[in-house]
Amino acid sequence: MKSLIGWGAKPVDSHVNEKTDQQWSLFRKLMLGLTPGQYLGQALRNPFNWILGIIFAIGLPLIAYRFIFGLSVVTHGSNDYPWGLFLGFGLFAMVPLSASGFMLGTAVEIFGRHDFEPIERLALLNGLLGYLFAVIYLLVDLGQPWRLPYPMVVSFGPAAVLFLVAWHVATYLSVQVAEVSVSFFEWIGWLGGKRFIRRIALGLTVSGIILSTLHQGALGALFNYAPGKVHPLWYSASFQWIHFFCSSIPAGLCMVIAVSTVVKKTMAWRCDDNFKDNLDRCTLGLAKGASLALITYLAIKMIGVAHDNEWGYLATGWGAWFLFEMVVGVILPIILFAYAVRHQAVNLARVGAFVTIFGIVLNRLNTALIAFNWQLYQEVPHIFEVIIAVTIFAIYVVVYRFILYRLPIIFSWKEQPQEALAAQAARPAPIKTSTAPIGAMYRKID
Amino acid sequence: MSGISRRRFLAASLAGCAATTLAGPKKALAAGSFEGYPDGMGVLVDLTRCIGCRSCEAACNKEQNLPAPDRPFDDKSVFDETFHGGKQKRRPDENAYTVVNRYSPDDSDRPLYRKVQCNHCNEPACLSSCFVNAYTKTKEGAVVYNSKVCVGCRNCMVACPFNIPGYSYSSAFDPVVKKCIFCHETRLKKGLPPACVDVCPQEALTFGKRKDLIKIGHQRIQTHPGRYLDHLYGEKELGGTSWMYLSPVAFDEVGFDPNPGNEPIINNVKDFLGTVPMVLAIWPAMFTGFHLLAKKKEHDEHNHDVEKQHDEEGGDQ
Q: Do A251 and A356 form a contact (C-beta atoms < 8 A)?
């Protein structure tokens, strides 16, 4: 794409083709304003697509294989380790990494931190896709995936934690679809939809916080069903759900830093100046937030150990592994972030973000797989299980990129004159009318 | 602005209240110490009487129409089988709802045999972890499973403290959870003992009302104090189980979790379930409040340009 831009191609960022003064058709919008030949050419020139091609060539048949012959041919799923890599990585790690949606939603919509707006849409999209693919990992793992809606419509088990997870993920997914749909409405040019979502944005954001708190926590509480199976250092009878909820905060924030870093490196042509110029400042802001969340997480992890009096385990091999997770996954990024924020070293903050992500993924894998059944034996995932997990992640990357190329996530959509007028007409929202008298009052007092 | 958010706040509060009300009766069921249905049946397993003949395995296989095993049921060499580097003995799975294992404890001059199957807990972890309510604790004492609604999430297997449920991983289109169902449909409902108890030549298995079995168990301990450990495993463990065990040696020497605690698994998640209506009720007001505070500040800044500039210089905080 970069070279095409060099030759004068201009990626679509408005409804009108500037060269011909004609409206882009939906097909040309999908083609990024290129002709099919140009589009295919740029796709084939990208070496990353070749890597993806190889992954899909191996992985997609394996996924089909799993659905024809059952889980036993592709996983080591056993009666002792019912949950393998699909859930350990796909669900338990992808969900905290997608906490970005509600974090940035809260910062911008609730706390009014409009300085984070350039990165808000990316965070919302990251949240939506992470959840969506967590569900896709789940579908691959479920014995009877076609029964996924059963807890919603057929048979209810409301006293089960998983019931909460199912309902909250489902409702939160629809909340996130609504939040991200603003960009989609801009892209297809339906302003009514966009205005409607803006009107209910506060409600959406607040429900996003509620649903996230509950199901990020609920994922942790799932392990409360297995008190004897998870190693005591990764299990905390009273605080398991708080540990999971709290660690999802740095996970979500760092995922936004990581994704925006990759985006800036690999698709700079697609980012607009607003995004590029503000990214460093936003990154440091997010790093600051993440480091505070990590410090809190470190504190409550230590409280967890102290509360159940598990200090003795720290001297064992499991203790060493636990300390590794804490030192590398939590303390190291805290130091990196502290240094980065103090010295405005943005790239160091980015390193810290990747380290944090590693730490959170390690924590979830430890809880769900490695330290699970610690008294029995160690489960090693099947190679096909690893390949399928990588393949689904590759699909996630492709969908992510597909959307970032097209929808105004990291660039802003140029409104047509009449749309701008319509938007202006719609703008005197209740906010201004209701607060104007207050402002006037203040002025009088002054 | 304030009107809209108040309406939203009310709506959210109502939703919270509705959720609390809905969650009410279910929580009452989970609360307290449920000791099983008064006429619930059970089985008392006396490890001192078992000779490892495996006829219970054969009877179960026949009663439940399970596939024929690789090795016949009179083949004693299966007792030498170990898995995962010798760390594990045989366990129930999709083809066997019960298995007998052999142990050679230090304090016993002869090997001991222990039959493993679903213990049919009073407050089953599988039941309370199932999000489609596929499990039922019947009034006869059995924990039965409804394959028609099972989604195949296998949370019940994670939750079971005895590692009992097996899963038909090799089935692509109709995988189900497989475990002992106490011969509920074919026998227990009619007041008959399960097939394994019926066939036992040693009377190692005693079928009866759970409350009577507890008395019998303690009587045996009292009559033969040297023969048994003074502990009826399953009387109190994890809220009590329908199947209970008498052993001459410490229970961890015959493959039991020595100290699973007396709390049913559901007690571990009750605290979390209790926070759910609280979050639903508190968060909307709290965050809408935060929002209003943040808005107020902005307008102040708007009116005091100097302050705003100052804030910008301070960077994000």
A: yes
Q: What is the model's pTM? A: 0.87
Instruction: State the Rg of chain B over Cα.
Output: 27
Residue B157 in contact with partner chain A when CB distance is under 8 A: yes
The reply to whether A149 touches chain B by the CB within 8 Å rule is: no
Read off the tokens for B193: 């003992």
Closest residue of B to A431, CA-based?
B1
Lowest mean pLDDT among A242-256, B207-221, B262-276: B262-276
Report the DSSP beta bridge partners of residue B115: B100
Cβ within 8 Å of residue B43, ≥6 positions away = B193, B194, B197, B205, B206, B207, B213, B242, B243, B244
What distance in Å separates the CA atoms of residue A107 and residue A114, rounded to the nearest whole number? 8
Q: Which of A33-37, A339-343, B256-260 has the highest mean pLDDT?
A: A339-343
> Which whole number is the average pLDDT over A373-390?
92
Region A398-420: mean pLDDT is 84
Is the Cβ of B281 closer than 8 Å to some Cβ of chain A? no
Percent of chain A having pLDDT more than 90? 71
**B285 has a chain A CB within 8 A of its CB:** no
| Beta carbons of A152 and A190 less than 8 angstroms apart | no
In 3-state terms chain A splits into helix, strand, coil percentages (rounded to 5) of 75, 0, 20
pLDDT at B21 over 50: no
Whole-number Å distance between alpha carbons of A326 and A142: 32
Reference A72, options B231, B166, B248; nearest CA is B166
DSSP-based helix, strand, coil % in chain B, nearest 5: 40, 15, 45
Q: Does B240 touch chain A (CB under 8 A)?
A: no
Tell me: pLDDT of A40 over 70: yes
Q: Indicate the DSSP class of residue B245.
A: E
Q: Give the C-alpha distances (Å, rounded to integers) separating A218 from A104, A135, B155, B235, B236.
A: 21, 15, 13, 31, 28
With CA atoms as reference, the chain B residue closest to A145 would be B151
- What distance in Å separates residue B295's CA from the closest CA in chain A? 7
Measured from the Cβ of residue B170, the count of other Cβ atoms closer than 10 Å reads 12
pLDDT of residue A100: 93
- Please indicate whether, in this complex, the C-beta atoms of B276 and A164 are within 8 angstroms of each other: yes
Give the pLDDT confidence score for residue A178 in this predicted structure.
94
The pLDDT of residue A446 is 37
Distance from CA of B135 to the nearest CA of A (A): 10
Q: How confident is the model at residue A33 (pLDDT cuts 50, 70, 90)?
A: confident
The residue among A130 and A27 whose pLDDT is bigger is A130
